[in-house]
Amino acid sequence: MTIWRCITHLLFVVVLGTASLASADAVAAKGPQVVVSVLPLHSLVAAVMAGVGEPVLLIDGAASPHAYALRPSAARALAEADAVFWIGPELEAFLPKALKSLAGGARVVTVLDDLGIGVLTVREGGAWGEAAEEADTGTGNRDPHVWLDPRNARRIVAMAAATLSEIDPANAAMYRNNEVRLDAELADLEKELIGKLTPARGVPFIVFHDAYHYFEARFGLTTVGAFAMSPEAAPGARRITELRARLVETGVACVFVEPQFEPAIVEAAVAGTGARIAVLDPVGAGLPAGAAAYGQLMRALADNLLACLSGT
Fold this sequence. Notes:
The chain is α/β, with parallel strands linked by helices and 312 residues long. 46% of the residues lie in helices and 11% in strands.
């Protein structure tokens, strides 16, 4: 009996040791704490982190990143972050001070500063509004809506995979595998949208604010103006009169509003012109956060454009 007890005890020690090693491995493989500012960017980073962890979304899709107040839960997430991904001060104007005061220990990735991102400039004057109507953000003239070009999305994926691999080498293989898969998926998405949007080329439309320059440039669309120079500055009476005249002159088929902003001004300007009103959403308000959101956002933009421009 003594021998069997010794054998039983030895087996127990071996099993316990194996379990302890497995537990230690699980702790070692735990993913980093990652915070991402806006939903489209969050979706791309979440897809890179698939199988490792889920990043925290700072601003949900229903809120405008142009006018956001940091909540206590968001402040805590920044203070605990190992990495923070954001677009830049042109979009999240509230964030630079918070990053400096709360996220000093985190790796901060500013998408607009990456040399691989194809950055367009904000359009001014004429159909795009006078500079006097622009809110004074002091952030330069870079157009921050870079995610609306799938090629920029592919660069963001590569950027996220490289950053996460550096700060979390234990999961580097997973990040790299996800990057390869996502790059192919985003290339296929671009081809899909090129085919889908072909009938919309050359059909003029006006947007609420100039958030779609990247989408328009990549897919050959014809935006002929914007009501507001920036989301923070409502268009004045003269601006509305100018755009109403432009609606008639150019035969604009559609005017697009955004779910985050009050459409009453646009509705009053469009009344009686024959132009249709529809919704375009550049940030994904109402979409559930997660890896699938980016594709859903891009396909929704294409579908809503086609539906309005074709009158269906």
